[in-house]
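Structure, all two chains, one model.
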Amino acid sequence: METQLDIVFGALADPTRRAILGRLTDGDATVAELAAPFAMTQPAISRHLKVLERAGLISRQRRATANLSHLEAAPLRDATEWLARYRAWWEESHGRLDALLARLQADPLATRDRDRPANAGE
Amino acid sequence: MSRTTIDAPAGVPFIDVTREFDAPLELVWKAWTEPELIKQWLGPAKYEMVIHEWDVRDGGRWRFVHRAADGEFGFHGVFHGEPSPHGFLQTWEFEGAPGHVSLERLTLEERDGRTIARTHSSYQSVADRDAMIENGMEGGMNEGFDRLDQLLARLQPAAVH
């Protein structure tokens, strides 16, 4: 079963769609405005907007002659809180691994945790 | 620059974590397989990682506890298949949710002296994946709003209303 969170993550998985959301944080925009920074046709952008709309990440309304897209923050916040925790866990781990690898490269014998006595063997 | 990428695709119970390290494969492999080394980096720094077993071989067991002021979180599993410097396969179970076992494959690939580490995690269902990550990754939750291609930081003001 596909949950709303899955749909949101699916929508966020595409870099063009993330860029569109980034643009919408500056304010509502038309399809033409959203298409401008990309080497993409307006119909292609419209397809991305449909995915974002289905995920509840944007809403669209007709204003005069143009369709304006509007960013909806709530589902993005839900998705990012969930993912942020996982990401934070790994990012902090990887940052610590960077530091460890740098230490090991500087001094191959520095394999022991500095706070703890060395153990013999593996 | 933060380079950890996380992909949690819709509709399938997988998560992929990818990260490049400025070190040769051999060293990254060591850091991942030697208990004395892995306990220095796996998990947020606020945890003391107490390793009971980390026996990287076919059928070898592993168990560790992350210990901090806010509690203890135990994890255990088994390594499957013959590990090689290009990676290993392990089951992963959070002791707070027995029976919800995921399968994690680590793949290491060296390119120009740098190493790309990929972790592909398979859960029993999408719901299992979402619940496990919510429950099993309590640590380090405050630092997170800094990526998703920088979008989140910009969104924070918009999210307040």
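Helices of chain B lie at 25-33, 35-38, 126-136, 151-159.
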